[in-house]
Amino acid sequence: xxxxPVGKKAPNAxxxxxMLGNVAEWCVGxxxxxxxxxxxxxxxxxxxxxxxxxxPKPEWSQRDPQLPKSSWWHSDAPHVGFRVVREE
Length: 88
What we know:
Elements: E1 24-28, E2 34-37, E3 53-54, E4 80-81
Parallel strand pairs: 1-4
Antiparallel strand pairs: 1-2, 2-3
């Protein structure tokens, strides 16, 4: 029912943690439109995969105070995040 701290799950073959199932990752689709990928803690098990795609929904921004509303910030979508990768 919520995200977990980063790096608590086993890494993949490239040493990256939390690639699937923590939060869905903000991306830009091949059509140039925003989408989220991978699934999240809020997804059904069958919908957590590297091929999972979802388009933003209006209810994700019900409380967004910006006018016009942002296409990237969703006040009501705690299951959506972004990935930061860095070298140690």
